[in-house]
Amino acid sequence: MQNHDELIAKLPKTELHLHIEGTLEPEMMFDKARKHGIKLNHGTVESLRAAYDFANLQAFLDLYYAGADVLRDEADFYDLTWAYLLRAKADNVVHAEIFFDPQTHSARGIALSDVVNGIVGALTDGEQHLGITWRLIPNFLRHLSEADAMATLTELQQFMQHFHGFGLDSSEVGHPPSKFSRVFAKVRALGLPVVAHAGEEGPPSYIIEALDDLKVTRIDHGIRAIEDAGLTARLAREQIPLTVCPLSNVRLRAVTSLEAHPLKRLLTAGCSVSINSDDPAYFGGYVGENYRQTAKALQLTPEELKTLAAMSIRGSWLSDAAKAKHLADIAAA
Ligand code: ADE
Ligand code: ZN
After folding, report:
1. CATH number of the domain to which 238 belongs
2. Residue 172 CA: which ligand 1 atom is closest?
């Protein structure tokens, strides 16, 4: 098997599925805990990392929401985002569309202005100094009520100039997309596109609901579409981008192994698929590592790797001119 690491390093990459809270490395968690006088449940970075052995999505989310508690002020959100951007730069990421979870922070009494200003401050500096363009996407937490999401949307209206779309994440099973039909209709009426996590742990029917009910323009994960041939054909026909996160799917046991991951089957079926890192501090690798391990496990060819990078660009919310430039760079890689 040829080693494609050199090509992967060269490919201009876009991240379309990245939770900024999921880039909180244990070292920073301890730094911030010290700064704010917070006692963590784990005594050392090593014992915390050792706890990153998840039985399922919920087991991860419990730890992830607890970890986010160390993020308390604007500087914390700036530092978190800046640290991510430095890692992204090392992976040759040229564009990042980033999620954050407003309700995780507002529920703890953190001012959303601190959250938004910290993240946007770092993204703005990253664009200027690292050349990484960006979009910002608040996600609603689907385990909370529709009313809570609606109230959050109202509170976020004052920051709308910073947002490029809205999404839906958190505990999937038992919280179908239709629970948020009215909230998403309101977002769309404001003129913003919407995306949703669907078909990560939840059934293919959740993907169909996200498309038909929420009218999403992208599906986050979407891997369980492979269980429904009609849906797979529809996703291919409509070229709905699926923002796939291979290492996340292995770590959260949505797939039994990377070798068994449906990414290549979705690609072969004609679907628009991209490789992303989801919550890289928790899942053992940033986007470059997701490319490298997936390429090896699924024996992806150089052409397939370039196609994945190109699909990521095409699935982004960049302008046509910016897309054309990055696509030319991928072709030349
Ligand atoms: N929030 C952060 N990562 C997530 C994931 N993989 N699925 C659902 N919600 C999330
Ligand atoms: Zn995610």
Report:
1. 3.20.20.140
2. 8
